[in-house]
Amino acid sequence: IAQAHVSGSLSVADKERKCVIYFREGRIVFGVSNARNSRLYDIMLRNGRITKSDLVKIPNFANDFEFASYLEVKKLLTEVQYDHLFTEQIEGIIVDVLTWAEGAWSFSSLKRCRDGLAFQVDPRRLLLEYGRCLHIDAVLKRFRSLDERFHRSEAEATGVNLSSDEGFVLSRTDAQSLTVADITSVAAMTRSNALHSIYKLWLCG
Question: How confident is the model at residue 173, as a pLDDT?
Fold first, then answer.
C-alpha cells in the first residue's frame, strides 16, 4: 500500500477483534479498533495521565473524539498533545495487529476517512522494531529461496535508526541486486543474521 501510494482502508479481523487502518496516498493517517485497550481513555489511564475519579466527570468518555475535545476545551490537553495522543493510539493498534498469528484482511479504495482527519504515523519504525522482535525461525519461513535477489528501493533511509548489521547490508545493495549468498560472502555475519537483516530492511521499505 505504501509503495503503491494507494488511498483507502485496510480492514483486519480475527474472530471478535476488528481493526481498520486508513491510508492517504500510501501514508497511514488514521486507525480504529474495537479493543477496549485502544480507547484514548484507557491509554491515558494506563499511562497515569488521568485517574478513574477524573474519568467519571467526563461525559461520553468512550467516544475518542468527544473525550479528547473535552480535555482540550478544559485546557487539560494542548493541540500538540491532542495529536500525539491519537498518534499513540494508531501506533498501538498497528503494533497489536502485527502480533496476530491468524486473521483475515481486505483492502478497499472506496472506504476512506473524512477530509481533515490525518495524523503523523511512522510505520517504518514500527515495522523495523517488529522485525527485530521476530525469532529467526519465523523469518526463515518467509523466504521462498536463498536465491531470491534484493535491491535498493527508492525509499530514503533517513529517520530510521539502523543497527550496524542492517546498515552494512543496506550499503551493499547500493550498486546491484544481491542474494543472501552474496551478502554472507562479503559480510562477517552468519547466513541467518544476513537473512534477518534483509527481512527487516525489506519490511520497513
Answer: 78
CB atoms < 10 A from the CB of 89, how many? 23
Distances (CA, A) of 115 to 24, 93, 118, 194: 10, 21, 8, 43
CA distance 71 to 58: 9
Contact 64, 89 (CB under 8 A): yes
Reported as a single tens digit per residue, the pLDDT across 58-101 is 888 989 989 999 888 888 889 899 999 999 999 999 999 998 98
Q: Look up residue 6 and give its three cell numbers.
A: 494507494
DSSP state of 115: T
**Rounded CA separation 7/10 (Å):** 10
> What does residue 46 show for φ and ψ, rounded to 5 degrees?
-65, -35
